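Here is an idea for our session: we take a single protein and study its fold together. Which protein we use is up to you, so please pick one and set it down. Once you have written the record down, we can walk along the chain together:
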Amino acid sequence: MGTLSASLLLPLADELQQVPSDVRVRPDADAPNLEVRGNDDVFQHKLRSIEAYRSQLQIASLVDSIRQDGPYEYLRDVHFRLYSSKKYRPLFAD
């Protein structure tokens, strides 16, 4: 690890008590296991935020679709594994 990287990351290592969650916004491959329901104020803010991109042709139909669906989001909480290069080592073995 380079000196700059070490100076930035090592102080954070002591603070990390558990592995962070990996929550997928679009659980296409697997069924969602989390439902989030927003209140009307948050939902209206979300719609206005998306409408800010109205220069893109599909935005109006997207906002209409989201408005019809209501203030629900479906997510997938997946098991998070820290990266390890060991699993790739056999691919390059002599």
Summary: The chain has a mean pLDDT of 80. Residues 4 and 10 are 10 Å apart (CA to CA).
